[in-house]
C-alpha cells in the first residue's frame, strides 16, 4: 500500500518537476486578532475616487453580461475532494442520531436535501492544499476522532436509548483510510463539524426570520414549529461540540467555539442597520464598516476559522495557518456580498428560498447601503426598517436605478482577489487550483 509520505512526494513531483516552489506568505503574526471594523472598508484610505469609479465601471460591465456557462473550468473543486465528500451526509446523519424519534427526524431534516456544502468542501480543499506546505511538529493525539473521552456509561447516563457514543467508525469508510489520503481523519471530521454548526445556524435563523422555505422545501420551523426547530439547532450544536472535543486539539476547539459565539454576536448586530440604530440615520463610511463587521461575524467567521483549524490540524507553520485564515476570511466576505446581490436579482424559485427577503425583514444589505450614499432619501426607510407602506418596493427601485449592485460586486471582487493572493505561496496542486476556482464560482453563483 502506498504510504502517505510517498503520495505527497509524488503529488509534489507532478506539480513541480524540479522541486517544490518556495512558499511565500503575507506577513502576519502567527495568531491573528479578531478583525477590527477598520480592516474591512475604508475606500478613502485604500483608493482615490477615480480608481474606485474604475473598479465599479469594470464590475458593471461584468454584472451586465452573464457568465458563459459553456466556458471551460480548469478544475472542479468537488471532484478534487469527491471521495471525501461522498461520505459527508452519511457521517453527519450518524453524528446526529438520537434515541428520541421526533428529535432524530427534526435534527436530520436539512440533511435530506443536499445543500451546497461549501464550507466542508473548503475545509477539505484547504486540508489537501496545505498537505505539501511546511510543517511544524506539535503534540497531537493518537486516539481516533470517534473515541469518547469519558466512559460510555457516563455519557449515556439516564438516556439508554442514545446511539452508540463511538459514533461512526471511520475505519469502515475507504475514504477515511489515512494511508490512502493526504487529508487526515481529524480534518475530515472538522469538515463535518463545520456543516453541523452551519446547519444549526440555519435552523435558528429560519425561526428568527420567520422563513417559509429552505433548499426548495418548507423550512423546519414551518414543518415542525418554532420550538422544535430551535431545539434541533441546539442539539446540532451539542453534537458538534462533542465531535469537536474528540479532535483533542484545544486550539481548534477554541476557534470553533468562538465561531458559535460570533454567530450570535453577528445576529445581534443584524438587529440594527447602523451602530446607533437612529430613526433618521445619515450615511457614513462607518455604515458600511458596521455592516461588514456584522457580515464577518455572522457569515465569514465560520469559513475563516475552519480553514485556519484545518491548517492547524495539518501541523502547518504559523505562516501557512495565517494564509489559510486570510483566504477563508476574504472568501467568506465575498460569498455573503454576492448573496446580498442575489436577493435583489434572482427569483425565489432559482434561489431555493424567498427572494427579496432582506428588505421584508427590515435589513439594509450592501447593495442598498451603496445606493444610500447617493440617494439620501433611503435614510428614512432604513431608519424605520422599511416598515412603511410601499417602503420595500421603493427601496428596490432605488437600488435598481443606482450603482449599488455594481459596487457590491466590485467589493466582492476585491475580497476574492485577496483570498487568491493569500494562498499564492502554496505549492501548486489540484487542491490549490480548486480553492482558486471556488473564488470564481462564488462570483458567478446564482443560488
Automatic annotation (TrEMBL):
GO terms for molecular function: metal ion binding; prenyltransferase activity. InterPro entries: Isoprenoid_synthase_dom_sf (IPR008949), Polyprenyl_synt (IPR000092), Polyprenyl_synt_CS (IPR033749). Belongs to the FPP/GGPP synthase family. GO terms for biological process: alcohol biosynthetic process; isoprenoid biosynthetic process; mycotoxin biosynthetic process; ubiquinone biosynthetic process. This is Decaprenyl-diphosphate synthase subunit 1. GO terms for cellular component: transferase complex. Keywords: Isoprene biosynthesis, Magnesium, Metal-binding, Transferase. Its cofactor is Mg(2+). It comes from the Eukaryota. Coiled coil: none annotated. CDD domains: Trans_IPPS_HT. It holds the Pfam family polyprenyl_synt. Gene3D superfamilies: Farnesyl Diphosphate Synthase.
